[in-house]
Design goal:
The longest helix has 15 residues, at 110-124. The model has no long low-confidence stretch (mean pLDDT 94). Helix content is 15%, strand content 22%. Strand 5 and strand 6 (71-72) form a beta hairpin. The chain has a 4-stranded antiparallel beta sheet with strand order 1-4-14-9. It has a 4-stranded mixed beta sheet with strand order 12-11-10-13. The protein has a two-stranded antiparallel ribbon with strand order 2-3. With 260 residues, it is α+β, with helices and mostly antiparallel strands. The protein has one domain: paralog of FGE (formylglycine-generating enzyme).
């Protein structure tokens, strides 16, 4: 367990500068990732890793596990296929289970991820937020390097990600696999990652400026990207995309921060 003295020390996530540029977003294999379209993304910063338990812990101890959108920000009682949230409630506040400090934060709702970004912005004076789906895919593809790889940094998923074949049914500490061309880790596998965008069934009329697509679509369903420890390789490709409800946390979904 962490000690009470360390529970409220802010650990700011490491971020990487992503130089802006254009890329072709989408793919032909999935209808919901069509049509392939050109997107121009401005420069921004993106978390080098998914937000970890130790990074999220001070937020919970400062704000509590409040309700937003009809649910707790974090489902501390969750147990999805053997995974467990690394944070528990104790008399001293919220603590991280020993050995899970560097595991990705899971069982967090989209609202909880948003609340953390708002809190971190207030504490640091920087404008943290969730990445747009376009920013996420651009970075996963290596940004200006225009990576041809199927996964974020390799054509061999086992080199860069934790997935159904090698995860043994749970998350793993961030940063253990190889990074992609931008020095970003765990963008394929380990955990799916919340994006800011509403879910749309395809890319018809999607923005071409890299911004989050929050007009129309499903406000109660947001985009998650990257695949997770429980997915097969097909679902961990940089082009694949999924939908999840905003007001509940799952054992295979986390998030990483972005900022301008």
């Amino acid at each position: 367990m962490t000690t009470p003295a360390t529970q409220n020390i802010i650990i700011e996530p490491s971020t990487i500068f992503i130089e802006g540029g254009s890329f072709m977003m989408g793919e032909k294999k999935r209808e919901h990732a069509q049509p392939i379209h050109k997107v121009t993304v401005p420069s921004f910063y993106l978390g080098q890793y998914p937000v970890t338990n130790e990074e999220f812990l001070p937020f919970l101890n400062d704000q509590g596990n409040q309700e937003e959108g009809g649910t707790n920000w974090v489902n501390l009682e969750g147990n999805y296929e053997g995974t467990r949230c690394g944070i528990i409630k104790s008399d001293a506040g919220y603590e991280c289970s020993l050995g899970l400090e560097r595991h990705p934060m899971i069982y967090i709702s989209w609202y909880g991820a948003q609340a953390y970004c708002k809190w971190l912005s207030e504490k640091t004076g920087k404008s943290y937020r969730l990445p747009s789906e376009a920013e996420w895919e651009y970075a996963a593809r290596g940004g200006i390097h225009h990576s041809p790889f199927t996964y974020a940094g390799s054509n061999q998923l086992k080199e860069v990600g934790w997935y159904r074949t090698n995860s043994h049914g749970s998350t793993k500490p961030v940063g253990l696999k190889l990074a992609n061309e931008l020095d970003l880790y765990d963008m394929s596998g380990n955990v799916d990652e919340w994006c800011a965008d509403h879910w749309h069934r395809n890319y018809d009329h999607a923005p071409d400026d890299g911004s989050a697509w929050i007009a129309g679509g499903e406000d109660s369903g947001r985009v998650v990207r990257g695949g997770s420890w429980g997915d097969d390789g097909f679902n961990c490709r940089v082009s694949d995309r999924f939908r999840s409800g905003t007001n509940f946390g799952y054992g295979d979904i986390g998030f990483r921060v972005a900022r301008y």
